[in-house]
## 1
Amino acid sequence: MPEPLPKWLFLRYAKLWKEKKNQNFDFDEARRLLKEKDDKTVSVILSDLRKHGWLETFLNPEDARKRTYRLKSPHDIVEEIARESHR
């Protein structure tokens, strides 16, 4: 179940969502969209989004060392949180 995001992470999610919606993207594209120069910072952002349930990660079919990412929609996240809170 998705968990609420801390503000700093939600702002980065919003930046990515504005550009990509639910389209796939890779690490380099995330770094470019977030305007981050440090790979470690981008790794933390993507990892935390995944841990909070707001990002899906897939192995790149062409190179298993690389990952492809896709954001969950805000609508789907709110629906999932609402469903779980009524159990």
## 2
Amino acid sequence: MPVAIKGKIDPVRLVETLNTLGGKHGIGRVDMVEKSPGGNESRGSMKPRAQTLLYAAHRELEALVLDRDTLHAKMVLAPKWRR
């Protein structure tokens, strides 16, 4: 769990700070096209900056603490769990 940036612990401030830092560095822009069940396409743009940074930090931490076989198993099983 993320706990602080520069000693600040409040989760709301943490996300706000990550959004600001990510925005300054062009992190977290996602353009997507989705099809609705009715067949219509919708286009949108999201800016999940804090989520992008937290996810990247989590991946890096996993690479440091998980052994190779466990990390490989996670990569194989993760797409199946998302369904």
## 3
Amino acid sequence: MLSSEKRSLARFLVIYLASTLLLFSLASWIFYSSSKHHLLNKQRDTIVYEAERIKSKLRALHQSNDATLYYPYHSEIDSAIYDLDKQYIFGTFNPSIDLDTSLFTKDKLYYLSKVEPYYLGAAYLLTARKIDYAPIYALQKQILFFLLLAGLVFSALGYFLGRLFVAPMRDAIARMNLFIQDTTHELNTPISTILTNIEMIETFRKHEENMDELKRIEIASMTLSRIYDDLTYLNLNHHYHRKIETLNMGDLLKERLVYFTSMLEVKKIETVLDIKENITLNIDKNDALRLIDNLLSNAIKYNKRYGKLNIILNDTMLCIGDTGIGMSKNDLSEVKQRFKRANKSEGGFGIGLHIVSQVSENYDFDLQIKSVINEGTEVKIVW
């Protein structure tokens, strides 16, 4: 899967899962609040029932002639009686709560009821019990398990829907890659033929009066050859075997500058070299060629006539800068993407810096691009 497909799929999954999670979290919270309230009400019902039982006991005690009075007692439910002023009289506990404002704490449920008729000086009865959190904890576990299961199910469903979502993009890219593959195959033979014949003409010095025309044909053929190489590289990047070897980057850079001599001469570009000798790098030669060729090609293509091409090579980096048209900040943020062209006035497929980015990523190089509109662009590869 290409990086663009991965980004589209990731964005879809983030939006889909975030909205689904939000919806299920809200529904789960409503369900949890309702169920918790129901469980607490069931526990409150027990103290309401106990309050009625104690009232009946108080009534029986009031009517009894037995001199020994026993206050009703329950092993799990506390109770206390209060007078008309809500002053404590007696009970199995004496809580420090305000009977007029709050009848609920973190650990206990309370129920205050009137004693009618007025028995043994008791006007109010307060019953309470500890909250049993076991069913509430069980409810929480069930909801968390449901959310986890729903998350897994909807993640799988989201991934499947996401694949369907990017399928048209994949088909379009597949067709484009097939077109590129067929195009490069068809271009190879005529390009090779043109370049071979130009070399033969230059070797035998024929038609010297038409050398300017031949130079233009040579430049056009070299451009086609480079496009062919780039498209081939783009199509086979992840499939061909890389032969890592120690390359002298200075020698390779000078060799490629000779290859681009014709283009430099046509635009009258001055080349400023600061190349340190014997700089070696462990890299596949094709990758190194694509790295250097695309940087040089862009620096020439987008340079101004009579501009400068600044090349620095040392132990830590390769830096190629031009004095051309430059790029905006918005273009800089997207210029590494495949088929992205910052300037559409020049030809090309918008794959040069994408290839440079891919090569840099394969070898953990740091690709740095600085550019100012109408002042130029500097591309630095730090290894």
